[in-house]
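Example record

Each entry pairs one chain with its bound ligand, beta-D-fucopyranose.
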Amino acid sequence: MTQPPRLSRFDFPPGFLFGAATAAYQIEGAGFGGCGPCHWDTFAATPGNVVRAEDGARACDHYHQWPADLDLLRAANMDAYRFSTSWARVMPNGVTVNPEGLDFYDRLVDGMLARGLKPFQTLYHWELPSPLADQGGWTNRDTAARFADFAQFITERLGDRVASIATINEPWCVAWLSHFIGAHAPGQRDIRATARAMHHILLAHGMAVERLRGMGQPNLGIVLNFDYAQPATDSAQDQQAAARWDGIFNRWFIEGITRQSYPEIVLEGLGPHMPQNWQDDMPLIGQKLDWLGVNYYTRHLHAHNAAAPWPHLADVPGPLAKTQMGWEIYPDGLQHFLTRMARDYVGDLPIYVTENGMANADELSGGAVTDAVREEFLFAHLGATRRAIAEGANVQGFFYWSLLDNYEWAEGYEKRFGLVHVDFDSLARTPKSSYHALARALARND
Ligand code: FCB
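Structure tokens for the complex follow.
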């Protein structure tokens, strides 16, 4: 990668927010504070699902170490913090409130405000309570209604202090990755389950937005992830293959919400497996948003695979430099999605980059971590964000994923995404050179 220019906060519009993101299960320690079991605990305990069968029982022990972690955000001159509130912690059996869980988030939000950090809350970053997983999880329509109840309870407690609320983090991961590919909890590989989850997760979003709006809660949005889809060759078949992937990943959720319809190219495969009368739910799914969150990491090349059933896809390895995840580094993809969202779907609605980052095999040496490659990655993606703004996209903030090295789902603790290194034995935190570079870029002149 050629060295991107080192931007600073003054290269962005006034009021643009910089922050970092985390998620509850990945950092808190699900073993503490009366948190209930979630589907990730059992997925991880099943051989073959997660590297070394690691789980989030202790994670970064953020449940106890949160004051120091919030200090790290503050000391990096950040304006905001994107965190999630675990459903399994707040309602261990999926329906009854755990006061300890609510108290924890209450302290956490007050701690952000005390440090001048705007709390950007995500309601569902994948901690589905096991009792609800037992009843079919996202394949069961009732889960959406239970989710709206959870949204209400937690908002009754925190809603007066959070700056914004996202309903769902990455519906594609919740539905497709977890029910079709089977790489995330609950690890299903079933097209009927997938079609149901693809719809019910948006229904949960719609029901929660309706409930929270009814309570007068402002700044409601959703966080979608996007994957730049390119055909492996110029052939018409490969172009169709890329278009199918684009439909499944990049169009299904945003079109459900903003057009109250699903793309034909995806219904060709999922249509026969959809829940009955799904069309009746579209007005509820299509309620107005206050903002859109865009998560972006990489691109993929796609080839048509006639031998495989729908969606007839074969992944083709790409030529670009890759991160520790094996993901190609492609900052132009971020610019593409920010401008595309504004142009095709949300117009002037505020857009936030709610996640962008890279895993790297960082090593502590002499008490420090030099992750120059992450510095380059970060500034290249800030540059892509700035270009999208110049093209007219109303992007109002950027959250780096992640503040800390943490539990990277099926990859366990092996993949390091943090600005801050975590030693998973001692739990010591060491800010990396990328953290220091970002702190310098975000310095204010007041
Ligand atoms: C996203 C997830 C986040 C983290 C990053 C690397 O898909 O939202 O929890 O795992 O990827």
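Residues 191-214 form the longest helix (24 residues).
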